[in-house]
Amino acid sequence: MKRKKRKSEKKSGKKLVEKAGLAMKHEFYLEASLIISYLMERKLKKVRQKIEKQTINPGFTLDQSIRRVKFLLLSSNQTELTERFSIVFIDEIRNWKNQRNEVFRDITERNVSHARMERLATEGVKLYKTLNNAAKLAKPTIGLSEGEAGG
After folding, report:
1. Strands, DSSP E only, in 25-142?
2. Which range marks the domain in which residue 138 is found?
3. Contact of 96 with 124, CB cutoff 8 Å
4. What is the pTM of this model?
5. Is 140 domain-assigned?
6. CB 46 within 8 A of CB 26
7. Looking at the domain assignment, is residue 4 inside a domain?
8. Helix ranges, the chain (H)
9. What CA–CA distance (Å, rounded) separates 59 from 102?
10. Looking at CB atoms within 10 Å, which of 9, 39, 89, 130 has the fewest?
């Protein structure tokens, strides 16, 4: 018998954060990095959607979302928004994404050290926490509701 897909099967941010934490605990750093990357992408899309007040194309990648948020910050006249999401912070997210891409490339060519993957995952977790907190603090400015500000 076929199992019906429920709408609630879509992973919530909270469950994904728990999965990333479990992956970190069991030293599955690559998996944790992938989950964190997805969470960052979702959060940046939500931020963009609220700033631009329009639905965002689901095909936007993490890199495209980073670029667009940075553009919006540079062209924004909302000081509270630029305080919560600094250009330096957005550049840190881009740098992390580039490091993630390097690790993925290097895995296919040579052995990537356990410490390097751990650093990537740990840094990703820190950046995501900062991004999530900034989105929560900025919700009056950019219109994020409580349900959207969470993980």
Report:
1. none
2. 14-145
3. yes
4. 0.78
5. yes
6. no
7. no
8. 13-25, 29-52, 62-75, 79-84, 87-109, 114-137, 139-142, 146-149
9. 22
10. 9
